[in-house]
């Protein structure tokens, strides 16, 4: 019995693993394990029975959590955009831009995956959309099947790390940090990961050109009447937009100084990027609009197509992320604006009807309910685990690791990597992160850095063969039988499951490289965060004491109730009311006397 009470926390954690291995749903496993060990712990005297009285307040706190409202908002926004055909137009247009170069279709998939990640934040929607639209095109023109599968699955998982990511919302909630700060910390690492994907495709295009062929001339549909490609005018618009963006980024501090009326010397990097992108996008839109309205003929068909297709998602990115980074809106408010903007874009494109709207609402409700049930179970488990001194057990276990902070981070990331084979990011966020966060904070690790690091690692949970969810999503839409291509009228062979698994492995390694880079260079995350203002409380206390001593106490203050210094008349006592029998008059006289200034004030 003594062994049970002494080691109750590790036994409870082992019990949870047994529940999960038996195949019970995660939410119910967490709740059942918490309640079972709660009642047993009360009987064994591990903690008092009053512990169970905390549970209703914990559950009410979940339902009153405003931060979690961002989850259904961003989910709904992503589903609406996916059903409005935005992904199809983006892939078609960007594929035409990059198509003439080797690996162009793969680069288009990566670029569109990043755009969808920054507008939808939903992995399933991104992977399924790009699998349905781009995979047949890549197979049609001879792309390697493994590479095609890997690049689609990996680009879809960018929704895990590029804001507005759902996992970053949950990570911020579990670590007790601001969602906006978590978004800022993940902004640069997310696009660095996209850059590594691009680098891998470029390397393949150099050393294995047959695996990533260019788009044939007959497949390039946006040409001028005289046969020109139209890249010149597109390049001019891009140069003008990029020039304005660079100018804004370089002079962002001057803009803030002019706007706020006081000198501003430093502006966060993420704010520079978002604002510069907005300025460059707006300039391109103005140029294309003037050209179309006045029929000037300055832009080619390709340039106009690219501009008007890219403007809506980029505008939505600024609406959501820009308002959050600039401090205009909270993440929940940004999600609400994004959902409303997605509805406007969907109806404006004429591709959204009530049936699709009902489907999006149903899917959003299912996901939100799923998150809520897991949170209820996780809260029940964590409450009993804390009562059994579980956090102390985890702290002693982790703090005894060799290597200090680096050793702790390496072990934690290895553990997350292997757990991600069996658990998705929701379950990892609610089970593991609350146990590791307090330990990381006590070891002096910045929790924003820690959260972004874990989110980057959890991204591998979507790519792990054979359990990765992104691989399952792609398998559901990839052809499993030979079919006749409607354009080339050739028979296209199917994509096998092993080809999908083989294509995912290089991108899993790239994700692990990015995790290592973040461990080695934390400034990639923390450099874009708002600088903390350090206040020396001892110096403040000393200044207050000096001020009090120089003023000889409280006598020289402007306090009307202060005791006057020697030599000054004291405040006269209020005169007694003439008619004490009149309560109203007595009260008024007393108020008038109390409101009269002291003699020292009158002398002044």
Automatic annotation (TrEMBL):
Residues 583-604 have a biased composition (Low complexity). It comes from the Bacteria. It is found in: Cell inner membrane. Its main location: membrane. Keywords: Cell inner membrane, Cell membrane, Membrane, Transmembrane, Transmembrane helix, Transport. It is a multi-pass membrane protein. It holds the Pfam family DctM. GO terms for molecular function: transmembrane transporter activity. One of its GO terms (cellular component) is plasma membrane. The chain crosses the membrane at residues 7-28, 34-55, 67-86, 106-139, 151-172, 187-207, 230-253, 273-294, 306-328, 334-352, 364-385, 405-426, 504-525. Residues 13-244, 302-523 form the TRAP C4-dicarboxylate transport system permease DctM subunit domain. Residues 549-604 are annotated as: Disordered. Part of the tripartite ATP-independent periplasmic (TRAP) transport system. This is TRAP transporter, DctM subunit. It comes from Paenacidovorax caeni.
């Amino acid at each position: 019995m003594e062994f049970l009470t002494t080691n109750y926390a590790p036994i409870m954690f082992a019990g949870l693993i047994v529940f999960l291995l038996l195949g019970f749903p995660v939410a119910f496993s967490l709740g059942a394990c918490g309640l079972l060990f709660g009642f047993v712990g009360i009987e064994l005297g591990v903690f008092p029975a009053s512990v169970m009285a905390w549970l209703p307040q914990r559950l009410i706190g979940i339902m009153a959590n405003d931060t979690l409202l961002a989850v259904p908002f961003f989910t709904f926004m992503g589903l609406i955009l996916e059903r409005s055909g935005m992904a199809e137009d983006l892939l078609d247009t960007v594929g035409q831009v990059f198509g003439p170069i080797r690996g162009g279709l793969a680069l288009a998939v990566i670029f569109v995956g990043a755009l969808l990640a920054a507008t939808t934040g939903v992995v399933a929607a991104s992977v399924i959309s790009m699998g349905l639209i781009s995979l047949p095109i890549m197979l049609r023109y001879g792309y390697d099947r493994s590479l095609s599968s890997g690049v689609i699955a990996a680009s879809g998982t960018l929704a895990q790390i590029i804001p507005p990511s759902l996992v970053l919302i949950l990570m911020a909630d579990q670590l007790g940090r601001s969602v906006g700060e978590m978004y800022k910390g993940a902004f640069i690492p997310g696009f660095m990961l996209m850059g590594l994907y691009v680098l891998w495709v470029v390397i393949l295009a150099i050393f294995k050109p047959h695996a990533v062929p260019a788009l044939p001339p007959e497949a390039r549909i946006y040409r001028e009447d005289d046969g020109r490609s139209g890249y010149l005018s597109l390049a001019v618009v891009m140069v003008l937009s990029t020039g304005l963006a660079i100018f804004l980024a370089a002079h962002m501090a001057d803009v803030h100084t002019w706007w706020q009326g006081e000198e501003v010397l430093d502006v966060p990097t993420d704010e520079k990027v978002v604002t510069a992108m907005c300025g460059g996008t707006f300039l391109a839109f103005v140029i294309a609009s003037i050209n179309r309205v006045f029929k000037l003929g300055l832009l080619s068909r390709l340039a106009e197509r690219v501009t008007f297709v890219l403007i809506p998602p980029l505008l939505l990115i600024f609406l959501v992320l820009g308002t959050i980074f600039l401090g205009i809106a909270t993440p929940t408010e940004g999600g609400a604006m994004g959902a409303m903007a997605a509805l406007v874009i969907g109806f404006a494109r004429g591709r959204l009807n009530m049936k699709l709207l009902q489907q999006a609402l149903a899917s959003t409700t299912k996901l939100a309910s799923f998150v809520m049930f897991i949170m209820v179970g996780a809260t029940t488990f964590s409450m009993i685990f804390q009562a059994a001194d579980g956090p102390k057990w985890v702290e002693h276990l982790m703090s005894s690791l060799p290597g200090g902070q680096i050793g702790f981070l390496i072990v934690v990331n290895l553990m997350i990597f292997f757990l991600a084979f069996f658990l998705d990011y929701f379950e990892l966020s609610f089970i593991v992160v609350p146990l590791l966060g307090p330990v990381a904070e006590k070891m002096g690790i910045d929790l924003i850095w820690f959260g972004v690091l874990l989110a980057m690692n959890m991204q591998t949970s979507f790519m792990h063969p054979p359990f990765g969810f992104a691989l399952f999503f792609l398998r559901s839409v990839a052809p499993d039988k030979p079919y006749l291509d409607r354009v080339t009228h050739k028979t296209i062979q199917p994509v096998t499951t092993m080809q999908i698994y083989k294509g995912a492995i290089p991108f899993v390694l790239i994700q692990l490289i990015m995790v290592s880079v973040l461990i080695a260079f934390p400034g990639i995350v923390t450099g874009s965060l708002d600088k903390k203002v350090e206040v020396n409380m001892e110096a403040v206390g000393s200044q207050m004491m000096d001020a009090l001593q120089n003023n000889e106490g409280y006598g020289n203050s402007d306090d009307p109730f202060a005791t006057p210094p020697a030599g000054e008349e004291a405040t006269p006592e209020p005169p007694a009311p003439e008619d004490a029998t009149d309560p109203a008059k007595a009260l008024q006289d007393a108020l008038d006397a109390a409101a009269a200034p002291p003699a020292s004030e009158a002398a002044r």
